[in-house]
Amino acid sequence: MSDSIQKTTFTMPIGPIHPAIHEPIRLDLSVDGEEIVDLDVAAGQVHRGIEWIGMNRNNPVQSIYLAERVCGICSACHPFTFVQAVEQAAGIDVPPRAEYIRVIIAEMERIHSHLLWAGVAGHEIGFESLFHLVWRVREKVMDLTEYITGNRNSKAMYQIGGVRRDITEDQAPTIRKTLDYYKSIFDELKKLLLDDPTVKMRTRGVGILSREDALRLCAAGPMARASGVAADVRQDFAYAAYADLGVRAITPDIFTGAVAGDTYDRIVVRLLEVKQSIELIEKALAAMPDGPVLTEPKIAKLLAVLKKADGEAVARTEAPRGECMHYVRMKAGEDALEAWKIRAPTYANLIAVPTMLIGQQIADVPIAFASIDPCMSCSNRAVIVDTHSRTRTELDSEQLHALSVEKTRRLL
Questions:
Q1: Are both 118 and 260 inside the same structural domain?
Q2: What secondary structure letter does DSSP report for 350?
Q3: Considering 346, 377, 401, which residue would you say is the last residue of a domain?
Q4: Do 406 and 259 share a domain, yes or no?
Q5: Residue 192 lies in a domain
Q6: Residue 208: closest CA among 193, 228, 192, 189
Q7: 340 by DSSP, 3-state: which?
């Protein structure tokens, strides 16, 4: 090649609507040939103002409905985190039986979420038969969710002070039957997802995030654990019944003997966590104590307690995607929340996307980006739009910080 021929770099946008990216986000790639040399992540496509709406509901109980709809998949972890924050701020204890039921529902959601992601991963690498197989397997946990809660996805189980429905002895055999089904096909799933040469070829060495980068960028959930960071809220800050169940963070070296921090390792972590969730549900069913499932079943009395609450709290849970945090602030004499703030795991993991993709090939973008299991409806924040001039203003970090300080002072 002649020295006079120079490489050229140009920008190639992917999204916010693109068949390779199943979330409303735009990735602006700077590419040199097929290699990605720079990357900008542009979020802000689906901000719905849920926190503001929740602060304008009549009471915190009405905001549970909104928390359940922050994410279409994580309809347990957000209300789980939210009710814990309200309970801490209001000084409400939760019956032990309810704590176990909360864990069972949360782990069922983890199975559902990880299997859904595994199917999407197969689709992203063009392995459509894997996609359809895994989603067929996923139907079993969806059916079980409907059996217990009445809904396939929006479970409506979490209430301030406990859960809305009990899991009875008559339901336990059906739960165990579903768990036995997953145990019977686990080796088949492992063979397809971890041993198949096509999957390995498309995921090994793709989207690498080292342990040092995962710590530096504050990665969360399977993203962090796949990079060798043994962090898990269920283990490190045990909540509900997790302290009694012996949760241990899963890292890929358990299966592979080493940590590469690539997309393949993220498949390993999520698949092993499906097995772990099965075991946790079995333990919870066996150890679940008798007793009530709500501290205060009469809603009028509960609302009276909440109206007297004066304080703030931060609660955290280990959502399928990673650490989920909810902050609430309550003022005595007021019915509604004074403040509500959500920090979802995707919000943290998006920061790692440039590190993962720079130096990769364009063809690796779909599976590498999908490997963080992104949820933009959980993560989007604000963009200011001037309706008169029809101009759009993006807020940088300094502006957002200044506005946050101003808002905090108004709340004091």
A1: yes
A2: G
A3: 346
A4: no
A5: yes
A6: 228
A7: strand
Q: Are 314 and 237 a contacting pair, CB within 8 Å?
A: no
Which long-range contacts link 371-374 to residues 24+ away (Cβ below 8 Å)?
A: 371/121, 371/203, 371/206, 371/207, 371/223, 371/263, 371/266, 371/267, 372/223, 372/321, 372/346, 373/113, 373/117, 373/222, 373/223, 373/270, 373/320, 373/321, 373/346, 374/23, 374/25, 374/346, 374/349, 374/350
From CA 101, how far away is CA 224, in angstroms rounded? 27
Counted residue by residue, the chain has a size of: 412
Distance from C-alpha of 293 to C-alpha of 275, rounded to nearest angstrom: 27
Q: What's the pTM value of the predicted model, to 2 decimals?
A: 0.89
Confidence band of 6 (pLDDT split at 50, 70, 90)? low
- Least confident segment among 41-55, 83-97, 341-355: 41-55
pLDDT at 387: 54
Percent of residues, the chain, with pLDDT higher than 70: 92
Residue 13 within any structural domain of the chain: no
**Strand boundaries in 115-174, DSSP class E:** 158-159, 162-163
Q: Are 167 and 104 in contact (CB under 8 A)?
A: yes
Cis bond before residue 96 (omega within 30° of 0): no
What does the alpha-carbon distance between residue 111 and residue 234 come to, in Å, rounded to a whole number? Answer: 16
pLDDT digits (tens, 9 = 90+) for 80-126: 999 999 999 999 999 999 999 999 999 999 999 999 999 999 999 98
* Structural tokens at position 60: 């915190």
Extract the tokens encoding 20.
């390779």
Q: Model confidence at 2, in pLDDT bands (50, 70, 90)?
A: very low
- Cβ atoms of 233 and 239 within 8 Å: the answer is yes
